[in-house]
Amino acid sequence: MNSPLPNRFRQQILARERLIGFWMCMSNHITAELAGLANYDWLLIDGEHSPNEVPLMLQQLQALQGSTSAAIGRPSWNDPVEIKRLLDIGFYNLLIPFIETAEEARRAVAATRYPPQGIRGVAGAQRSNRYGTVPDYLTTINDNVCVLLQIESRAGVDAVDEIAAVEGVDGIFIGPSDLAAGLGHLGNPGHPEVQEVIRHLYDRVTAQGKAVGTLAPVQADARRYLDMGMHFVAVGTDLGVFKQATFALREAFAK
Questions:
Q1: Cβ of 128: how many Cβ atoms within 10 Å?
Q2: Domain HpcH/HpaI aldolase/citrate lyase, which positions (predicted)?
Q3: CATH number, span 8-252
Q4: Which residue in 39, 38, 56 sits closest to 47, CA to CA?
């Protein structure tokens, strides 16, 4: 197991580099291992909209051990207990969903930091510190956890300036599907009003010097967001790629 410190992905996010990612929701260590061979900048293991629990996410992290891709974990909610467990199994990058206020953002950051900066519980030997063999882990990890917060509601949009300004928030992720639903355009993230709000979020967050990202499994959408200037964009999902290829193969041999 390679040392987690320093966290190169967090450094890239803080530098607002362009990072191409891939979304993993199939809850399988074999597909995770395969995705890890593709040299994406980052791979997200989804615990919100996928049947992933901590042991499954651990298996996928282990499958990515030899990969150059940074692993991001998404908990099901802004829950300090769940966040603590993901940190302990070896996630150093977290995408925390449905943030609507600056106070929720502060709670999310606090859950990733040991006291006195936060409330993360201390375990002497866990996978994140190589089972207690990283001597400076406790004194350095607070500065090496990347916190990305997801804005996906009207309330989050209204509070974007305050959320992005919270110390320890490294970047803002825009959830187009939930944002579209919240704006009254369920199933239509391409609606002009939704796209206008996405642009507004991008402008407000970048004005504070923070990175902005999103998920865009349609290539045209991904290129539009990258042309806009977004910094970390997931350009596909494992489930979507598998579904598309499976259906296309069957169609190629249709009677």
A1: 19
A2: 20-243
A3: 3.20.20.60
A4: 56
